[in-house]
TrEMBL record:
Chain segments annotated as transmembrane: 325-354
Database matches in Pfam families: TPR_11 (PF13414), TPR_12 (PF13424), TPR_2 (PF07719), TPR_8 (PF13181)
InterPro entries associated with the record: OGT (IPR037919), TPR-like_helical_dom_sf (IPR011990), TPR_2 (IPR013105), TPR_rpt (IPR019734)
Name of the protein this chain belongs to: Uncharacterized protein
Keyword Lipid biosynthesis in annotation: no
GO terms for MF: protein O-acetylglucosaminyltransferase activity
Gene3D superfamilies listed in its UniProt record: Tetratricopeptide repeat domain
Length: 388
């Protein structure tokens, strides 16, 4: 609705409540106009006046709850959604929205109950199906999550989130063609979805279709010129296809948009070396060395790979440290694959995959062990509050 239309509607509703102060619908609609105009406190006051005029007005509670939810006042939002349901036990959207608020508040089991109640009232509710899929996805129950996403897709043709999430699953499973099909459908729904273009481009690139990936990245940066990730991915695709100068330009653009982008800084340095561009070489190597030390301190995988680190004029001990970390990560991934078919003890895990443990890699060892333990002992749903 245009601003002029909103102002005109506001005048009508003000006149209506002036003529009849107990007109609950007019207070509600006036609140909706205030909300559309971004005047949230005024909207809250209108919804509260609607409830004074009609204490069992479920819609007013629902709209009030939505504002509280948007303001991240989750307890107030949950209370108001609950009041809406008490006033109207068949208020489908209140169940779904309260589920979202409960999930954000860490009360996941209660959220699941809300989404399931929503589906009892409306079995083909796409948002509730998607929301359940998201919970199971977070719990790493991939098959169950995929079934909910597919159910959501089957009942609607205009919702992109289940398609995006299903694409992630397909990509993780190596079903690149199916992932690309999902992203393509997202782009049919919204041709300006830059995130979907980048994600489809990433999938094309992993699938070996680099030229198509480049086209998606170019389209993404055309739609959203300030999207640093799209410029970075475009640069990597250019680099992999031998277009070094274009890669350098895109890496520099990504850094202009996001100066603190460690992967891009490291990739830019590597690409500059490949074309023998030595300008600011010493400064860049010092910056990359600082990035690596910071990443190791934070137990993050270094952005420089071991075979590059050995060739760089950086601290030799730091290069060796990078080598150890990558070795441990590869061994841990091997352990995860082994653990998926054979359950073995933690002591055997340590003996086989970490026969020596330099102090510098203790955090990495802990993270790898956690990954292994999570694989063989996944969290059991419905046992505790919070995210699985």
């Amino acid at each position: 609705m245009e601003v002029g239309d909103l102002n005109k509607a506001m005048q009508y509703y003000k006149e209506a409540v002036k003529l009849k102060p107990s007109f609950a619908d007019a207070h509600l609609n006036q609140g909706n106009v205030y909300k559309a105009m971004g005047m949230l406190q005024e909207a809250v006051s209108c919804y509260q006046r609607a409830l004074q005029a009609r204490p069992d007005y479920a819609m007013a509670y629902g709209n009030l709850a939505t504002i509280y939810y948007e303001q991240r006042q989750l307890d107030m939002a949950i209370h108001c959604y609950n009041q809406a349901i008490l006033c109207d036990s068949r208020f489908v959207e209140a169940y779904n929205n309260m589920g979202n608020a409960l999930k954000d508040a860490g009360r996941v089991e209660e959220a699941i109950n809300c989404f399931q109640s929503c589906l009892v009232l409306q079995a083909n509710h796409p948002q509730a199906l998607t929301n359940l899929g998201n919970i199971y996805m977070e719990w790493n129950m991939i098959s169950t999550a995929a079934s909910f996403y597919k159910a959501a897709i089957a009942v609607t043709s205009g919702l992109s989130s289940p398609l995006n999430n299903l694409a992630v699953i397909y990509k993780q499973q190596g079903s690149y063609a199916d992932a690309i099909a999902c992203y393509t459908e997202v782009l049919r729904i919204d041709p300006t979805a830059a995130d979907a273009l980048v994600n489809r481009g990433n999938t094309f690139k992993e699938f070996g279709r680099v030229a198509e990936a480049i086209q998606d990245y170019i389209q993404a940066v055309t739609i959203r010129p300030n999207m640093a990730e799209a410029h970075a991915n475009l640069a990597s695709a250019y680099k992999d296809s031998g277009h070094q100068e274009a890669a350098i330009a895109s890496y520099k653009q990504a850094l202009c948009l996001r100066p603190d982008f460690p992967e891009v800084t490291c990739n830019l340095l590597h690409t500059l070396q490949s074309v023998c561009d030595w300008e600011n070489r010493d400064t860049m190597f010092r910056e990359v060395e600082e990035i690596i030390r910071r990443q190791i301190k934070m137990s993050l995988l270094p952005s420089v790979q071991p075979f590059h680190a050995i060739a760089y004029p950086i601290d030799p001990l730091l290069a060796l440290e990078i080598r150890y970390i990558y070795i441990y990560i590869l061994l841990a991934l091997t352990a995860l694959l082994f653990a998926s078919s054979v359950i073995f003890s933690a002591s055997l895990f340590t003996l086989i995959f970490f026969p020596w443990q330099p102090q510098i890699c203790d955090p990495v060892f802990i993270n790898c062990f956690s990954l292994w333990f999570a694989t063989i002992c996944p969290p059991t749903p419905f046992t505790s509050e919070g995210r699985g």
